[in-house]
Amino acid sequence: MPYTKGLIGTYRRLYEDPPDESHDGGQFWFHRTQNMIAVYMAGMPGAKFRRQENPDEYFVWPLFHRARVTAGDASVDVPAGSIVIVPPGDSSIELLEEGHVWLGFTSLSSDLIDRCPNKSEYDTPLAHVTPVVTWPEPVGGYRIRVYNLFDLPAGKPQCYVHRTAMTNFGYGFPAFSHAKPDTDLSPHFHDDFEQISLVHSGTHVYHMRRPWGRDGTKWMPDEHVVISTPGIAVAKPPDIHTIQVVSNGTPGGVLDFFSPVRWDYSTRKGMVTNSADYPVPSEPPTASRP
Question: How far apart are CA 257 and CA 200, in angstroms?
Fold first, then answer.
């Protein structure tokens, strides 16, 4: 399913699309928002994704398969069920077994935007989306940081941050193994940032609603879009949205990716798992809007 355009949300079913690129033993799919770029990498052992002079940190999510992360002179073999923060500069991600990983970059990695099939979607930027803002440097400086998702009790917040982005497992990890009932949904909206949801397990329905304005000719019908694994859904402000897992008896989970860092989550006690590594500014950072 090529990315959708002209609807409320943006959706992509990667399992229906051929890879956007094939090289270094791997297959790669790219998708952008205004501030973020998601990369899905699949392949055999030895498949690599390389970065040169990446301007800021980025996330790697080796959820189900082992990977080797190299940054500068450092190299770490990462077990499945992890989140990795890769420092700026030269780096590479290598699969250690047949499988896949997700990667998440900010739009500061501007060269990656040209590799996205939907690169032109934001030729006219969304004026109400806050630009990427850089938060304080991590405690102890830059390095490869690996966080094991199994270190926390099931159901606890699994939210992680670096200087320019944040990720959160809305359902926790490991994923749900039952469908979410219609009586227990959580529709919400964001004022000034997009949410990109990466479907890593199971099947989900993305419910999206565009608020009504005075001009009734611009009203849009609600959307209820089914996406399985691997897939992507993007909610833009101020659209109302919620995600409903419909897999029953098999795991169903997503991870959410945000940039810039969310102030509301960062200031909520106990919400950010790696808060000791990344100081919170004394007040919300600001940036000039595009």
Answer: 13
